[in-house]
Every structure is written in C-alpha cells, then in structure tokens.
Amino acid sequence: MRIKGFVLSVLALLIFGLPGCAGLNFSQKSPEAIDFHPQIIAVLPATVGAYEASRDSVDLVASSRLAKTGWFKEIRDASTIKNRMASEPELSNDVTQYVQKLNALGASDAAMAGKLKSALEADAFFHAYVTAWEYARMEGGKAAKVGIGIKLIDANTGAVVWKANHDIVEKYWVSRPALEKILERLTDELLKEMPH
Fold first, then answer.
1. Can you list the positions of beta strands (E) in 98-181?
2. What is the pTM of this model?
3. Which residues does 103 contact at the CB level (< 8 Å), separation at least 6?
4. Which of 2, 47, 69, 81 is the most buried (most CB within 10 A)?
C-alpha cells in the first residue's frame, strides 16, 4: 500500500508540475511578412515595466535564442546595443524615444526606425516586453509565471511585421522552477511563429 501511495504521489507531482501550453495567447503577422527575410537583426533592450529583475535575463535569452535559430547572418545583441547607448548619448536618446513610442502607440515610427536602421546597421528590430515574471500563489498552490510579448519590425519601412505574446505558468510544490528556464522555453515557442 505504501508503494502504491508513493507512486500516486509522484505521478500527481509530475502531472501538476508540468507546464500547460496549447498555442500562443496571441500571434499576428502583417501581409508584408511573407516577403520579409532580414539578414541582420538588432535586439533592442527589453521593456520590463514593474519586472526589473527580469531585464538582464530577457535581453540575454532573446539574443541567444535568436542566434540559436540560425536564421540570420548576424544578431546585434541587446548587450552590445546597451553598451553603445552608454557611450553614445544620441543613440541612447533615439532608442529610448523609439521604444517609448512603440510601447505607447503599439505602432512603429517610420522616421525613427530609419534613423535607428542607419545607426545599428540592421534590417530588422526585435523588441520584447515583459508581462509577467513572478512566483505567486495560484488556485490553492504555488506557481511560477513568465510572460513576454514580442514585436518584429522592418527597419526599412518601420512596419511591425509580426507581434505575439504568450505566458507559461508552471505549478510546483516544493522546488521553485527557475524563471530563466521558463523564459527560454517561452521564447522558443514564440520564435516558432516568427517570420524570417
């Protein structure tokens, strides 16, 4: 009887500890996406809002997972762009204003995109924003939740070619899952839908 109870407990832990995922929350491609095949993509610093603890992880994971796809000739990673922003005030101002407008309006400013295209020498911009990064109580248990949204922008026209968002909630009992590992899985799921 003890073994049967133990086996049932382990099975329950495995079942409830697995993340559930059945497609993205939202994914939308523009008509231009079919002919959009950028070679150089710039990963703009993520917008993290209240989830400041996620900043470095999101920038690093976005850049590394894009590189892992092998779709692009070159990735201008967020870390390199942030280093340039620290030493080039005009670039810092331009990136900051562009991202603020992108977040506020949900649309890309074509003139600013053109300016950034020249400064970053990129065909496309990849911008992630964080919607969840936390451990919380959920439905009587504990859960880790990570959520991000992504916009892929044609640097030549400033058009948002693709946008998507999704989250993963992973329930746990004892050991907290690493938010960074959940972020990696989440980013990979989003990238499966991204035009390239």
1. 124-138, 141-154, 160-172
2. 0.85
3. 47, 129
4. 81
